[in-house]
Amino acid sequence: MAVTSVETAGGKTRRGAAVLLEVLRSEGVEYIFGNPGTTELPLIDALLEVPNVHYVLGLQEASVVAMADGYAQAARKPAFLNLHTAGGLGHGMGNLLNASVSQTPLVVTAGQQDSRHTISDPLLFGDLVQIARPAVKWAQEVAHADQLPVLLRRAFHDSTAAPTGPVFLSLPMDVMEEMSSVDIGEPSNINRQAVAGGLPELAQALTALRPGKVAIIAGDEVYASDAADEVAAVAECLGAPVYGSSWPSRIPFATAHPLWCGNLPTQATGIAEKLSGYDAIFALGGKSLITILYTEGPALPPSCAVYQMSSDVRDLGRTFWTPLSVVGDIRASLQALLPMLQKAAAPQRAAYAASGQKVAEARRAQRAQAVAEVLAHPADAVISPRVAAWETVRAIGPDIAIVDEAIATSSDVRLFLESAWSAQYSFLRGGALGWGMPAAVGASLGLGRDRVVSLVGDGAALYSPQALWTAAHEKLPVTFVVMNNREYNVLKNFMRQQNNYISAQEGKYPAMDIVDPQIDYQALARSMGVPSSRVTRAADIAPTLEAALATDGPALVEIMIAAG
Q1: CATH architecture of 199-362
Q2: Which residues does residue 5 pair with via DSSP β-bridges, in sequence order?
Q3: How far is it, in rounded angstroms, from Cα 186 to Cα 196?
Q4: Strands, DSSP E only, in 406-554?
Q5: In 3D, which of 280, 330, 294, 290 has the Cα closest to residue 309?
Q6: 491: which residues sit within 8 A by CB, 6+ positions away?
Q7: CA 507, CA 501: separation in Å to the nearest integer?
Q8: pLDDT digit string (tens) for 111-141?
Q9: Three-state DSSP class for residue 254
Q10: Same CATH topology for 14-180 and 199-362?
């Protein structure tokens, strides 16, 4: 092992890698997520002297980024990750874009070639700053070891400042080996719980609308602000339904709450239809009306006003005109708004209560109808996605975290969720596949190595199966549930919804079937040290899952569901 530090008359002199680890320890970092290469050797070597910072090994950089994403979301603090040069950063870009869209706070680093010979175009060299820049808030290369404390602390600060998201530092190998006596200082304490202005006007505007004519949209920012209780109190005051984002990162609201009405559709026409009965929406957080395929017409009816609260000023009035929107932390601002709302709503308290009761009754009826539909098909020869979702959610229960990337069953899974825990469910917000399995590994670490269920489609499972090895290596209680329909079912369904695709008319879909040969997920799991089982009957889903959930470490359950 190389010398990492020496004592001199001027104080402690140590390598840049040791300086970096000192800063990480002071910032409360528990884990480094990474996959090492030659340019990361100084950091790997320095870890031998810092046993309380644990290196979580991912076998490919896309998995590394998603693990860090899952950890940061679950732990509610920035994650630190270390990639390998231009190629490794390139491997991680898909999930780095996911993290950017989800606004996950990440401090992303990558080892860079020794700057003393970059003029000769050495192997693995690339302009890391320019490669990373489209997917991060800012990117910079560290020029000297003495810069590490300031730039690292700046990265941690800025990753958590609104809008939250990844930042990037390039770490040249010579900087990590350079000796430095720099003082790392202390972490700053920054309170970002700013209370929005304009709250009296907002309270008057919301209560001026008729009871039952305001819908609340709980966006991802509600989770980041830990404001589920405050959203529930506002909804109860107004007797208002609470919808989730159309394509969420989280369900940030208790799904067992009587005013929870599920997530909005993913097409503009569907959103407009769902919101057509309201005179206004109160959107908490930004980017809650994300659409996938184009449909004619806006997502909001022209008669529906938009009131919004967000810590990110860029989201206010971004797409839809708003008579009043306010900038502030969701939790702190709702705590200040609630007494004003209660006072303004007092004259119509009975009408608001009746509105809330009507919402709750409609929600119960919708869920009961879905359950009845499932129970009518208990012994079908082929498991439908809805039956698979019901049996899976029933086995998981209300207290185990779910990380979902099984698109074929995701809408049904959300329909059947009924938990008082507002942090139970997370989803692929960015849309680039390969996030779910490694994100579940990171989520388990972020929850103190607690139990997590990873729901993943068979296609998505093939993007980052390396997560299985890390789960086994770390002995994490992650249960991977592969919903296997042997095809890209979502793409086929999109084509069927259009009138102009020949594929849908003829029932032929090039490059959308995962057959010939079929993937052996049982063998894949076992090859990475994870016990596995396959389910072909609906009646076997719950007992098989319950057995897997009772194991100490990871397990994989493959559920064969209907194609088409």
Answers
A1: 3-Layer(aba) Sandwich (3.40)
A2: 14
A3: 30
A4: 425-427, 452-457, 478-484, 532-535
A5: 330
A6: 509, 512
A7: 10
A8: 999 999 988 888 888 999 999 999 999 999 9
A9: coil
A10: yes
Tokens describing residue 203: 């309270």
Question: Which among 244, 256, 255, 240 has a CA at the least distance from the CA of 219?
Answer: 244
Q: Domain ranges in the chain?
A: 14-180, 199-362, 377-560
Tell me the CATH class for 14-180: alpha beta
- Whether this model's pTM surpasses 0.85: yes
Rounded to whole angstroms, the Cα distance separating 283 from 196 reads: 14
What is the C-alpha to C-alpha distance for residues 290 and 268, in angstroms, rounded to an integer? 8
Q: What is the CA radius of gyration of the chain?
A: 25
CA angle, 332 then 334 then 338, to 5°: 130
Give the amino acid at 252. P
Q: How is domain 377-560 classified at the CATH fold level? A: Rossmann fold (3.40.50)
Report phi then psi at 14, rounded to 5: -145, 170
Residue-level pLDDT at 1? 43
CA distance 143 to 98: 29
As given in the structure block, the two tokens for residue 481 are 């549930």
- In our burial notation (b when 16+ CB lie closer than 10 A, e otherwise), range 368-390 reads eebeeebeeeeeeeebbbbbbbb
Cα separation, 425 vs 454, in Å, equals 10
SS3 sequence of 310-351: ECCHHHCCCCCCCCEEEECCHHHHHHHHHHHHHHHHHHHHHH
Q: Rounded distance, CA 239 to CA 358, Å? A: 9
Position 327 pLDDT exceeds 90:
yes
Cβ–Cβ < 8 Å for 531, 479: no
